[in-house]
């Protein structure tokens, strides 16, 4: 009987050790063999201390730590899915809508996580009920789990916006964008390359980035575009680069908390609004559903005439079955993009603009197109470098095809990663390097060169305006500064990344500006003083 009891106590302790080991390797860069080591150590320690052996008698008690353990399980799941847990992304997607997502694989993982957490909770409860020593210290364990949970720490930091002494510092740096008509406006193509950060150009990743590097020989290539808070997911990257501001979620300023957002950042003027006023015909094409994360509402509400996602484009597919979890493969999407550019070029008397976003390099493994598989050989369904190389090659082939067909005359082409990559198979290598977003400009008379400046994705907005011949006042728009003008200093150059990130967690005035019209408390019409800001 005693031998059986020891064995029974060893099993739940080992299960808890497995959970702790998995948490450690997920949140740190410890090697995989840390997991079995921690599990064996936990099992051995339980035998040594006779944990769960009935010391102090059996008591049918529910541990205080069950909820804190669940919260830790949620955090570890998010960290395993995305690498860095961004609460802003969580809040935004819950309000903007997560239907029609392509995360089938993550839903399966969520099921496995849930079953694992049930097992861990059962193991912990079994031990607490059978060991008075653990029962005595268990409330302290619950408190430590709560205090140390990064999810709750993040919520606490965001709550500071309600009580901070100065919640408008960032908002006072915001510059309302104004541009003026020009006689011969250029066309515009923006190619967002999903998660294809410039970091992939490091020697560590071999020839993965070579196709973009070759495109860069004829482009203005920007080095040093970092990622700040609230710009680390697709919609945040698009809004950052087209509106000049991080995407601070609506949160409690939305006066209809349980309804989807009717508009996305209606309080600011973005690139589409400005170009629409100048007579541009604008189209957006994306392989995923435009309903996911409010993409359709953003583009429809900011000057775009045609907004097309999976539902709008799938009828044009030659093979209706040639789709992935998220939507169209990029070779198909790019073919349809060429068709749209030809249509706009033929039908438009004035200038036009097309925005497009790829899917090939989407975490965790990507969705390489069939044309890439024919070129690169067999794919193991896990190697993200294969998918990144595919994405870079398809982008280069699209630009060259447009050029060959004469569709890039008087056209500015923008290539940019929408955000840094989330957790992928080379995550440890990525986070060990200085990480930068891809950003390059081609055409419209720009002289090829490299520009190295400390910047963030909000600086893309005024830089694109400058490159198009629509310079904003002081070459600033939103929170961004044109990277083509050395005297126009970026926020990161002036204040550093840590201060900007801290302010984004603490402030609320910029959030109210973004969501003006959806908030119960409206901002004043009069702009606040600029605090003697020297640009």
TrEMBL record:
Supply the alphabetized keyword list: Cell membrane, Membrane, Transmembrane, Transmembrane helix
Q: Please state every residue range assigned to the domain named Sulfatase N-terminal.
A: 186-470
* Topology versus the membrane: Multi-pass membrane protein
Q: Does the keyword Membrane apply?
A: yes
List all membrane-crossing ranges.
31-49, 61-78, 107-128, 140-156
The organism sits in which domain of life?
Answer: Bacteria
**Cellular compartments annotated:** Cell membrane
Kindly give the InterPro entries that the UniProt entry links to this protein: Alkaline_phosphatase_core_sf (IPR017850), OpgB/LTA_synthase_biosynth (IPR050448), Sulfatase_N (IPR000917)
- Write down what this protein is called: Sulfatase-like hydrolase/transferase
Taxonomic source organism: Halomonas piscis
């Amino acid at each position: 009987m005693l031998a059986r009891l020891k064995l029974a106590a060893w099993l739940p302790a080992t299960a808890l050790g497995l959970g702790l080991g998995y948490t450690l390797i997920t949140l740190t860069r410890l090697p995989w063999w840390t997991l079995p080591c921690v599990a064996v150590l936990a099992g051995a320690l339980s035998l040594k201390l006779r944990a769960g052996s009935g010391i102090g008698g059996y008591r049918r008690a529910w541990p205080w730590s069950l909820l804190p353990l669940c919260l830790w399980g949620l955090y570890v799941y998010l960290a395993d899915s995305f690498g860095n847990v961004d609460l802003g992304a969580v809040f935004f997607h819950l309000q903007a809508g997560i239907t029609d997502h392509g995360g089938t694989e993550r839903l399966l993982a969520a099921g496995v996580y849930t079953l694992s957490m049930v097992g861990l909770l059962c193991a912990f409860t079994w031990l607490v009920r059978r060991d008075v020593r653990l029962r005595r210290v268990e409330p302290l364990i619950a408190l430590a789990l709560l205090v140390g949970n990064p999810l709750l720490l993040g919520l606490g930091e965001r709550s500071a916006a309600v009580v901070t002494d100065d919640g408008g510092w960032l908002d006072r740096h915001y510059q309302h964008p104004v541009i003026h008509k020009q006689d011969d406006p250029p066309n515009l193509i923006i190619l967002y390359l999903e998660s294809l950060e410039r970091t992939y150009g490091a020697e560590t990743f071999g020839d993965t980035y070579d196709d973009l590097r070759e495109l860069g020989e004829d482009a203005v290539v920007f080095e040093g575009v970092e990622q700040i808070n609230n710009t680390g997911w697709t919609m945040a990257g698009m809004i950052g680069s087209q509106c000049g501001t991080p995407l601070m979620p609506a949160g409690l300023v939305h006066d209809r908390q349980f309804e989807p957002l009717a508009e996305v950042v209606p309080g600011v003027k973005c690139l589409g609004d400005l170009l629409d006023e100048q007579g541009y015909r604008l189209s957006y094409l994306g392989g995923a559903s435009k309903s996911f994360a409010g993409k359709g509402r953003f583009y429809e509400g900011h000057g775009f005439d045609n907004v097309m996602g999976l539902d709008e484009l799938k009828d044009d597919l030659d093979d209706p079955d040639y789709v992935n979890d998220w939507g169209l493969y990029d070779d198909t999407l790019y073919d349809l993009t060429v068709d749209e550019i030809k249509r706009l070029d033929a039908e438009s008397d004035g200038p036009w603009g097309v925005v497009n976003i790829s899917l090939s390099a989407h975490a965790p493994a990507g969705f390489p197109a069939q044309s890439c598989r024919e070129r690169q050989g067999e794919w193991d369904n896990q190697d993200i470098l294969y998918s990144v190389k595919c994405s870079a090659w398809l982008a280069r082939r699209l630009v060259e095809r447009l050029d060959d067909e004469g569709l890039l005359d008087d056209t500015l082409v923008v290539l940019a990663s929408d955000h840094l990559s989330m957790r992928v198979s080379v995550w440890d290598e990525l986070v060990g390097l200085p990480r930068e977003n891809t950003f390059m400009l081609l055409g419209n008379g720009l002289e090829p060169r490299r520009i190295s400046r400390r910047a963030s994705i909000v600086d893309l907005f005024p830089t694109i305006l400058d490159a198009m011949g629509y310079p904003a006042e002081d070459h600033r728009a939103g929170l961004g500064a044109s990277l083509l003008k050395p005297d126009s200093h970026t926020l990161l150059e002036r204040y550093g990344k840590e201060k900007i990130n801290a302010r984004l967690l603490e402030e609320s005035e910029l959030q109210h500006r973004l969501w003006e019209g959806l908030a119960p408390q409206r901002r004043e019409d009069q702009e606040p003083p600029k605090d003697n800001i020297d640009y």
